[in-house]
Amino acid sequence: MSLTFDLGDRPALITGASGGLGAHFARTLAAHGAPVALAARRSDRLRDLASEIEAAGGRAHAVAMDVTDATSVAQAFAAAEEALGTLRVLVNNSGIATPGAAIETREEDWDRVLDTNLKGAFLVAREGARRMVAAGASGSIINIASILSFRVGVGLASYAVSKAGLKQLTRALALELARNRIRVNAIAPGYIETDMNREFFASDPGLAMIRRIPQRRIGQPADLDGVLMLLASDASDFMTGATLVVDGGHLVSGL
Fold it and tell me: Which residue of the set 5, 25, 77, 159 is catalytic?
């Protein structure tokens, strides 16, 4: 077992890589040697990120992918593998939320959240696992869940349900794929600062939320690097079906 976190022989695909945590995960994996396939619908931003990674000495390839469309997923995998070889690390990061009261949630909004966060993760994991099995390759599938996989929040019914389902999907896939040497685990982040929420967490309501986190701080994307590399590398070779919480103690506080 290696504890070096060297991913030089493991091409990785990251969904939702056009910004936020997805782009950060791609940079982190590339910095540890993984050739990275950047997948999202916004291919213009993917190309910019690919250029950035390659300028830093990494290897990257952008592919357009709609995670809710099985044909799009298959085509993106084919293009990525033509460029990088068999993908042995998958990061299911694509996710959306449509906040609002449950009784006011439109059916199409419910479907859009579940299709992206849960069905999309399944389609990507299924396609990746099929290709790993066909190639006789071991691999790691990492689903990005949430602390709302374990609890609920007001106005986030569809998101919480999708992430709870993703946690259970992680366990189900881990059980089925273990004999193929494919590990399936999840990361459940708490509040992590990104460009999309930075302004909110600097506001009075945002600061009040931070005060309820036992560590009394908002998480940074880099706080997820250690667990990401653990799950992507051989350091977690005997670990599958787990969902690792990274939240500054938020869940154990009960708040």
Answer: 159
